[in-house]
Amino acid sequence: MLRTCIILLTLVFILQLFGQVAEASEIEVFDVSRGKVVKHIVNTPQVQQEIKNMVYTITGMVSDLKIEPNDGYLVKIPMEPPVMIKNQWMDLYAEELILFLSPTSEPKLLIFSDENRPYFVHFNYDISFLLLDTI
Predict the structure, then answer these.
(1) In 3-state terms, what secondary structure has residue 29?
(2) pTM of the model
(3) I need a surface site. Which of 18, 25, 72, 110 has the fewest CB within 10 A?
(4) Helix-strand-coil percent breakdown of the chain, rounded to 5?
(5) Distance CA 55, CA 100 (A)
(6) What are the sequence ranges of the domains in the chain?
């Protein structure tokens, strides 16, 4: 019970990190060390397709529950329309994703279902389409 409460509080904290209101169609890149959104990316149909391709490469659930990063970037990606994800770990419509990018670990993905249930997963996909190297 305590563990669930800590996880939920951490998720609320992460969502509050994106306090700036952006248009629904924008992807926001949050710099953890600077504590602010540093880039907005237009959420084009091509980007949406790349994200759909990315979620099809989910390789498993993240076992450690440390989801509050100390460095790197969080990339908040609204899915318009929600994307169906069905695999051995989940069967849901995802409305929002948060990509965790850290220089000290592999990228991870936090998926929010249409019921706002979080799924923290590993994936195997080239994310260069987001052009994050231009930050």
Answers:
(1) strand
(2) 0.76
(3) 25
(4) 25, 45, 35
(5) 14
(6) 2-134
